[in-house]
Amino acid sequence: MAKTTDSANSNADEPKRSLFSRAPKADKPKKDKKPGRMKQMVDIFKMTRRHDPMVTWIMLGAFLGLILVSMLVVLLISPGNWITGLLVGIPLGLLGALLLMSRRAERAAYAQIEGKPGAAGAALSSLKKGWIFDEQPASVNPRTQDVVFRAIGRPGIVLVTEGPSTRVKGLVDAERRRLNRILPNVTITVIETGRGEGQVPVAKVTKAMGKLKNELTKIEVSAVNKRIASMGNKLPIPKGIDPYKARPDRKASRGR
């Protein structure tokens, strides 16, 4: 009995904790806060203005122009109701200005990477759904940094080159022979990036690929990709050619 009493007394001396009392919170590691949407838009605008000084006036013109058009339309439908026209026109003006900024920002982003190693791979990173693109070059010359990137889609296999036509021709021919050995019936299209004759600017590469005629089904595209992957000879990215660093931020240009 004595033992029981001592135990009870010792428990009584201890500070009572309520059943509803919260346990002390452990210190959580602080997460890096992502910039807000407004800050992203401001950063995009500043970046775009550096490469396109006219963007401010173009956006202002679009904003005011859409407000004016909206007010005229509303006034024609309901004369004297200019307030409604203004309420409709302001959101439309903001939307139009932002869309224009998005387009100009994308151009500015491509202008920053054009001519740099890895620019062709960066352009392919913005391909729409339906294309399979390997971020590592399919073929590369480490000495000259000429590269050939490969994309697979319904038009077949597209080889996108980066480098002078005379130098990169050997890489293209070697890659074409390699692919023809395992996929003799699949169309191979070559697109050279650059500003020379017969070349396509980096910003227009995906547009040029979108104009190609479809020849494969989705199932065949997957089969072609698996057949190429079975070769299993991916090349390391040479120093100075990094598609991750050269990639234009399309999400940011859309304000996401």
Which keywords apply here?
10 helices, single chain, alpha+beta, five-stranded mixed beta sheet, 52% helix, 256 residues
Q: Level of helix content?
A: 40-55%
User: How would you sum up the global shape?
Assistant: elongated
Overall structural class, as computed from helix and strand content, comes to alpha+beta
Q: Mean pLDDT, rounded to whole units?
A: 77
Please report the distance between the alpha carbons of the first and last residues: 72 Å
The number of distinct helices, counting runs of at least 4 residues, comes to: 10
Q: How many DSSP-defined strands?
A: 5
Determine Rg (CA atoms, Å).
30 Å
Question: Which residues sit in consecutive blocks of at least 5 with pLDDT less than 50?
Answer: 1-23, 235-256
Order of helices and strands: HHHHHEEEEHEHHHH
Give a quick account of the main beta sheet: strands, pairing sense, barrel closure.
Answer: 5 strands, mixed
Per DSSP, what share of the residues sits in E-state strands of 2 or more residues? 5-15%
